[in-house]
Request: fold
Amino acid sequence: MLLDGDFCFRAARRDDAATVFNITLASIRGLAAASYSRAQLENWMGERTPAFYEELIARGRMTICLRNGVAVGFVDAEPGEVTRLFVLPETAGSGIGRRLLEIGIAQARLGHNGPIRLEATINAEGFYRKCGFRSTGRGYFSHGLGGEPIEIVHMEL
Reply:
């Protein structure tokens, strides 16, 4: 478990799946609303359920951020890519996202020597730029399950 000021970071556990699902949903609704259509927001999660996150957690690469014992964000990565980073809207700007990104980058570097990539939502492009990533193109989210196509920005570090 990593301690960082008021925050605590630990590996996600299977029983975190519903929490991770809810953080993702809250983040999408609260932080992406100005950048995406109502239909995209409503269908963003597609057919995902907490079970989708149980499978991701089982891979052992997801980190949860707790503030005062409450989960407020998470990051998931695989070699060469930060695949998911979501924080609760009320924590945006607090430094939690940046710290989670650092953890995700370190995880993505394990077993990988090339650039670190990610697919940023339109609303998060500026955040990733401030953290050193550069845009390499646009496309559609590739890590989802069904739903409306979600425009993203391909970025790399």
Observations:
- The CA atoms of residues 88 and 109 lie 26 Å apart.
- The domain at 2-117 is CATH 3.40.630.30 (Aminopeptidase).
